Amino acid sequence: MFAVVQPYDIVQLRFAPPGAANALVAVDAIDVDATRSLTPGERIEIAYAPNDPRSATILGSAHTHYLRNAFGLAGIFGGFALLFAMLMFWGLWVARRTRRKTRFRRQAIVTKRHPKAIADCVWRLSIESSLRFHAQKRRLSMH
Fold first, then answer.
1. Which of 18, 32, 59, 134 is most buried, judging by how many CB atoms fall within 10 Å of its CB?
2. In 10 A of CB 61, how many CB atoms?
């Protein structure tokens, strides 16, 4: 058994509608109210549709447990969904952060293993681009 937002009782009613030969049994679910409690054999007022007397309801009792308990259950599942989403985003954040750190570590390892090869490439590119720039500048100044 588990706790619900709005406790309720399932009440079995026995009554004889006008014109019926035998007593009928109906069932109604009502909110538990601290001010009113039903006892077996107590006479109560009921309302029912003439074409469906088994759908009788107890007059003066509340029937809010349907909606309140549904919202309570939705709140519980919503809380679990929110917690799951937060854990997913945290996991993605940690994975992304770890990937970045390992990428920078790999770059540092490559630089430490081959410092001359990388430096030579960078130096050569910078000299070639500066030579092109100066040659183009000389051509423009001659015209």
1. 32
2. 20
If you search the block for the tokens 């183009």, which residue do you land on?
136
Q: What is the chain's percent helix, strand, coil content, to nearest 5?
A: 55, 20, 25
pLDDT in tens, 20-79: 888 889 999 888 875 577 888 888 889 988 888 888 888 888 888 888 888 888 988 999
pLDDT in tens, 2-15: 688 888 888 899 99
Sequence-separated (6 or more) residues with CB below 8 Å from residue 25: 12, 13, 14, 54
Dihedral, 129, 131, 136, 137 alpha carbons, nearest 10: 110
Give the number of other CB atoms < 10 A from CB of residue 78.
11
Query: What type of residue is 26?
Result: A
Using alpha carbons, select from 33, 37, 35, 40 the residue that is nearest to residue 63. Answer: 33
Give mean pLDDT, residues 85-108.
79
Fill in the amino acid letter for 24: L
Is residue 98 within 8 Å of 31, Cβ to Cβ? no
**CA triplet 106, 109, 110: central angle to 5 degrees?**
85
